User: Fold this.
Amino acid sequence: MASPLSPIHPLPFLSSSSTATTLTRRSLLLSSTLTTTLPITPLSLPPQLDTNITDRVYLDFSLCPTYFRNATAADSTPLCSDPSPLGRLVLGLYGNLLPLTVSTFKRMCTSSSYKNTLVHKIFPGQFFQAGRQGRSREYGEVRLPPALDLPRNTETVDSKAFLLKHSRPGVVSLCLSENDDDDEVKLDSEYRNVEFLITTGPGPCPQLDNNNIVFGTVLEGLDVVTAIASIPTYKPSERIRQLNDLAEFFGDERAQKGRTLWNR
Assistant:
């Protein structure tokens, strides 16, 4: 009885003659390569972030000779009467990528709300912070004028706002994880975060990534950034020096640890 199945045809690279065909490794490899080749599809790349510079602002920095003043000085003592100029930073802002953050920062600059406020923290080899909000302008803290009427920054809860990295010196970023505004200010229903940081280098700051919003870069004045990073943030009084010397004389190990914080 004839089988209902169709006869099996030989493979394309095999001969149908009765003589056996000798296959070499080369012919087998080539055939398998040709028959298994698939169309190459492009890899799905992450979307390109729009870091075009839409706005430029500048900030002038000065060194205040009375910054290391006595803690017992009268409250009426002005923070700084005759500052020494350090230089100007020109910042480029990513307005297409982060319109709310950039708009707030621009308004803070153009309204002089940052004027006569302090760079309140410096982390050598990493970054410095400015724009801390508090209740007293006298101590170099930012006070937002009610007339400024800044909008709420919803970009602080948008995951796309955290994609840029703190990968080099001169990165300008909105402080979130590093923010140290006065707690009483944060409890205000009209609170708006305007504290920012600038990386000083020489290396990246990966600990800031995914927690703070990069919204600009230093276009001019990296030498000023370097100068700011080298300014000491603590200068002990003469009495502290004397006590430290006495502690060292008696072999107190804390004396050496305390000196490591001087002139940093």
In short: Residues 248 and 255 are 5 Å apart (CA to CA). The chain has six helices and seven strands.
